[in-house]
Write a structure and sequence with these properties.
two-stranded antiparallel sheet; 9 helices; mainly alpha; 2 strands
Length: about 190
């Protein structure tokens, strides 16, 4: 019992330190490569989700999406989330939470009304912040159902998620075909 309590206290302390690290990183006002270097030098690093939380809480213009660029916070988010599917899922949920607080607005893009959440997701994908696995794992996840807005987020991002799943299937088919070709070529070399 006391070991479980100690473990829980340690986890809470670490989470508090991670949130403090995100606050500290954001409050430096550094962006781009400077922020990446600053975070790399930190003893306790923020997670992508905690840095996003700071961006959404403190950046009054977060809806304009300039924060996604590598020159702003994109490079730092990419370095924190690269090859970390679980962390990416939590970051996607953080965007969901942000859009939920805004009541899932649609914005004008070249005369067409589009869901803010879908645009953010697309930009995060294009800037290599969240990869295919991160988004599809989020779409299929039911562990964090307590985070508000999942249904609205899924509805508004359906086209994007469908695109990702189709792209993933195409890549798997290509890999399978390449493996078949290699196997046949290997067999052909064996026959010689």
């Amino acid at each position: 019992e006391s070991a479980a309590a100690a473990k829980k206290a340690a986890a809470e302390e670490l989470q508090s330190a991670i949130i403090t690290a995100a606050t500290t990183a954001y409050d430096t006002a550094k962006v781009g490569p400077e922020l990446v270097a600053h975070i790399a030098a930190m003893e306790v690093k923020p997670t992508g989700a905690t840095l996003l939380s700071q961006i959404f809480t403190k950046n009054t213009e977060a809806k304009n999406m300039k924060w996604i660029s590598k020159a702003a916070y994109g490079a730092a988010l990419q370095s924190l989330l690269e090859d970390k599917t679980t962390d990416q899922v939590l970051a996607v949920y953080e965007v969901q939470r942000f859009c939920h607080t805004l009541e899932f607005p649609k914005i004008d893009v070249k005369g067409e009304k589009r869901a803010l959440i879908e645009i953010i997701y697309q930009l995060m994908y294009q800037n290599d912040i969240i990869d295919n696995d991160g988004f599809t794992s989020w779409a299929d996840d039911d562990v964090y159902d307590s985070i508000p807005g999942k249904t609205n987020a899924l509805v508004q991002a359906t086209k994007f998620i469908t695109f990702l799943k189709t792209e993933e299937e195409s890549e798997e088919e290509e890999e399978s075909e390449e493996e078949d070709e290699e196997a046949m070529m290997g067999g052909a070399n064996f026959i010689k």
